[in-house]
């Protein structure tokens, strides 16, 4: 029998005055209590939802409508597929930020409110100036800052390539996390037809159907949970699965994404899709050969192994990548894949 969410192990935490760098270099999720407690937005939110909305509206760029995800009350706040897996259980609307904020405030006390969710909204585009008053010093990192605004919602477990510092600015969040090695036990849905860009687990961890998803019981053994109040932050390392619940009628989260690799490198999921296209359906013996080829040239690549027999100017894709050579390789692949 699965543990209740309340019985899951808690994510390791750190106080706000602990060295932030230590938490951001961790290989497991870290809760940083009170990291953004002094943000003006957090202080407004702790006063009231109306105060938080008024503060945010002072920065709203209504000339550029944001994209809102809207689902009927019967969806229970879960952003997911429809029953036939032919579409989704929500629709998307373009709406000015101020209108979205006013609508959320209007529905605040309505138990049958539709789910309204503005996700991955670029901070400087839609709320310019907010970051100047509400920010985190991340040193030499150059993160993308996004804001997530909505009422009660549940985002299925998914992975992100960048490291992620998620800062709760209003409301409460519950995040259930699974290590990357639980891929096979999470029953991931389609790779190229997804609710919000990333493949998601088909299991609802708040009410798992173990008859349909029996291996999820093993994933649950490895799960940890973070319960976050306004002012708290959660560091999610690259590729950790995370299911996110917004628990209150008005919730705001600001997150910072950054990669530990140069921007000119492409997304690994593109290589996965190309490998599905080119390798997965080969005869078994050929797949084994290509597995060895990938091990030699990718996963166990040794630059010294090519240094002795290929002149430096002739190494091309076998040389260390930089912005120019990555661009050249990307163009080469585009030509090869254009059939």
Automatic annotation (TrEMBL):
Q: Which residues form the JmjC domain?
A: 102-273
Q: Which residues form the signal peptide?
A: none
Q: Which domain of life is it from?
A: Bacteria
Cite the PROSITE patterns for this sequence: JMJC (PS51184)
Q: Name one Pfam family in it.
A: Cupin_8
Protein name listed in UniProt: Cupin-like domain-containing protein
